[in-house]
Amino acid sequence: MKILLDGMGGDYAPEEVVKGAVRAAREIQENIAIIGPEEKIRECLEANKLSGENIEIVDATEVITNEEHPAMAVRKKKDSTIVKGMNMLKNGEADIFISGGSTGALLAGGLTILGRIKGIKRPAIAAWFPRAGKKGVTLLLDCGASVEAKSEYLYQYGIMGDIFVRGITGKIAPTVRLLNVGAEEGKGDTLHKEAFDLLKNSYLNFCGNVEARDVVYGDTDIVVMDGFSGNVYLKASEGMASAIMGLFKNKLTEGIRAKFGALLAYSKIKDIKSTFDYSDAGGAPILGLKGAVLKVHGNSRSVEIYYAIHRAVDYVKGDVTGKIKEAIEKVEADKPKATESGFDE
Amino acid sequence: MKILLDGMGGDYAPEEVVKGAVRAAREIQENIAIIGPEEKIRECLEANKLSGENIEIVDATEVITNEEHPAMAVRKKKDSTIVKGMNMLKNGEADIFISGGSTGALLAGGLTILGRIKGIKRPAIAAWFPRAGKKGVTLLLDCGASVEAKSEYLYQYGIMGDIFVRGITGKIAPTVRLLNVGAEEGKGDTLHKEAFDLLKNSYLNFCGNVEARDVVYGDTDIVVMDGFSGNVYLKASEGMASAIMGLFKNKLTEGIRAKFGALLAYSKIKDIKSTFDYSDAGGAPILGLKGAVLKVHGNSRSVEIYYAIHRAVDYVKGDVTGKIKEAIEKVEADKPKATESGFDE
C-alpha cells in the first residue's frame, strides 16, 4: 500500500505534515510518499526523521491556495501537489491521498481527474463527530461537497456512509438518521421529506430524523445531511465548542483563586477538552470518487496527520471505494421509484 | 399596554408562568393578563402573589399540545389559550402575546387569525444569540418558521431584523450578514447567491456572508438565515453548548480534588454559564404578523418569563409591527429587480 501526503496542504505545512508522517512511519508497514517541492520536503525530513522511516518524496513545484478558484487552479497548475496526487491515484501509483489543502480544489481535482464512481450523483465530504456521554463517534455526511442537494444525493450519502462505517468499524448494520428540523416523520422541506422516504425504503438501518440539538447526545452511526445545512451544522458545533473552551481557558486563568481551582481540576478539564477535540478523528474522507481521498483540517498539526495516516490504512484495507462501487451498482439495478424532482443525471 | 401570557404554554406552566408574571408585575406599569383555565390560574396566582400586582385572568378551557397537528388544532380548539390570545391581539384587546406553547400552533394561529403584514411573504422566528468575547447579542432569523425558503423571504428577514434591532436597541444602522457556507461573495447555493444580491442592493447595512463557525465570535447585529439551516444552526449550537456544560458539571463533581477545584473556580464557571445561558434573552419574536407574538422556550422557568415580559414592553413601545408595515410598503414601492425564481405570491 502507498499512502500519499500533500506536503504543502494546510497552515502548518510542510513541517507538521512531515512530522506526522515520520511518527506514523515508525508504526506502520506501508509506504508513505510526500508530494511537494523536493528540496523543501527533504530539509524538513532530515530535520525530523530518526532513521529508517520509509518515506519517499514526490516532487511538485506548485501549490493551490485557498484563495484560488478551485476548478481553474486545478486546470492550470498541473504540477501542483493536489493535481499530482490525484493523477497518481488515477494511475494506480498510490492507494490514498491525504491533504489539508483547499477543499474546493480537492473536490474539483477529484471530480475532473479521478471522476465519480459510476452511478454516484455527487461526492460527499464525511466527517467524524464526537459524542457526549455515549461511546464511539458519529459519521456526518455531506459536510459541504454539494451545497445544492437533491433527495437522491442524500439517499446515496446514506449508502456511502453505511459502507464506510462498516468498512472502518466492522459494525454489521450501522444506524442511519437524517438531519432535519424535527424528529417526527413528515418534518422539513420537500428535499428532506423525499430523502426520508428514499432512506426509509432502502436496505439501510434507517432510524428516522434527528434534530441538530440531539446529534451530539445520540449514538447514531451515520447522520445524513444536505451539504448546506451539514456545513452549517458542523461549523456551528465547532464554533460553539471552541467559544466555550476558550472562555473556560480565559476565565480559569483570571485571578489566583480560579487558577488554583483550575489546577486542581486540571485532569478533568483535559478529559473534556479531549472529548471535543477532533484531532484523533483522522480526517474527512471524500466519498464517491474513483479513488480514496482524505481531507484533513487546514489547521492540522502533526498529531492530526499522524491519526489520518492510521485511518487511511483502515480506509484502504476496508476497500471502501470498491465496496461503494458494488453497492451502487446493486442499488441502481433495483432502484426504488422516487418522485421526479429528486433525481437528475 | 396590555401584555398577554399563555398560562398553559411550556413544560412548567402554569406555575412558572405565573411566578414570572408576578415578579414582572411588581416592576412594570403595564397590564398583564394570563390566559388559561380560570380556577387553575387563580390558585397559582394566589399561591404566588404578594399584593397589588396588576394581573388579570382570561379564561380558556383548552390547551394545544406539541403533539397535535398545529393547523388542525388551531381550527378545532377555539377555546385554547393560543387561539384566544391571537383573537385578543386581532381585536385590539391586547398588545402582545407571550407563549411557551407549540411553535407550530403559534405560527398557524398567527397566520390564520392575525395574518401576515401586507407585502410580507413569510413570518420569521427571530432569536437572540450570545457572543463570545464581544459585547451585545446577535439577532438570528429565520430560526425555522419557513423551512422552504426563497431568496425574497431572506431579503425580507433582513428588513424585519433591521427594524426589530433598531426598535429594541436604538442602534442606527445595525449590521446584517447572511449565514452561508463561506465568507466570500459567490458562495452557497442559488438561494443564498440570490439572497446575497438582494441584501447587497438594499438600504440595509449589509456586510456580506458569515460562516456558521464565526457567528458566535462576531459582532454582527443581525444574521439572516433560511429557516432550515437557521434551525440547524441554532439547535447545533444549543446542543454543543449544553453537551460541554454538562460534561463540565459531571467531570468537576468527580472526585474530591476536582470538586474542590471547581469550588474555587465557581464564580468564573458561573460567568461562563451565564454567557451561554439564554434565559435573559427574553424570547423569540415571530416577525411579519399583524400583531406582536413572542415565543419563549418550552422549558422556560419563571426567570425566562420575567425577562420576556420586559422585552415585550420594549417590543410594543418600539412599535416594531407598525414599522415593519411601513418599511415593507416602501420597499414594495421601489422593489429591486430580482431573478424570477426568488419570488412568489
In a few lines, what is going on in this structure?
Chain A is of the alpha/beta class. Chain A is 45% helix and 16% strand. The first copy, chain A, has an 11-stranded mixed β-sheet with strand order 3-2-1-4-11-10-5-6-9-7-8, with helices on both faces.
Features:
homodimer; 345 residues; alpha/beta; 11-stranded mixed β-sheet; 12 helices; 45% helix; globular
Q: What's the topology here?
A:
2 copies of one chain form a homodimer.
Chain A: E1 2-6, H1 15-25, E2 31-36, H2 38-48, E3 55-59, H3 70-76, H4 81-90, E4 96-99, H5 103-114, E5 124-129, E6 138-141, H6 151-169, E7 175-180, H7 190-200, E8 205-211, E9 222-224, H8 227-251, H9 256-264, H10 266-275, E10 284-287, E11 292-295, H11 302-317, H12 320-333
Parallel strand pairs in A: 1-2, 1-4, 2-3, 4-11, 6-9, 7-8, 7-9
Antiparallel strand pairs in A: 5-6, 5-10, 10-11
Helix pairs in contact in A: 1-2, 1-11, 3-5, 4-5, 6-7, 6-12
Description:
The structure is a homodimer of 345-residue chains. With 345 residues, chain A is an alpha/beta fold. Chain A is built from twelve helices and eleven strands. Chain A has helices at 15-25, 38-48, 70-76, 81-90, 103-114, 151-169, 190-200, 227-251, 256-264, 266-275, 302-317, 320-333; strands at 2-6, 31-36, 55-59, 96-99, 124-129, 138-141, 175-180, 205-211, 222-224, 284-287, 292-295. In chain A, strands 3-2-1-4-11-10-5-6-9-7-8 form an eleven-stranded mixed β-sheet, with helices on both faces. In chain A, α1 (15-25) packs across α11 and α3 packs across α5 (103-114). The first copy, chain A, is globular and about 60 Å long. The model of chain A has no long low-confidence stretch (mean pLDDT 90). Chains A and B meet through α8, α9 and α10 of A and α8, α9 and α10 of B.
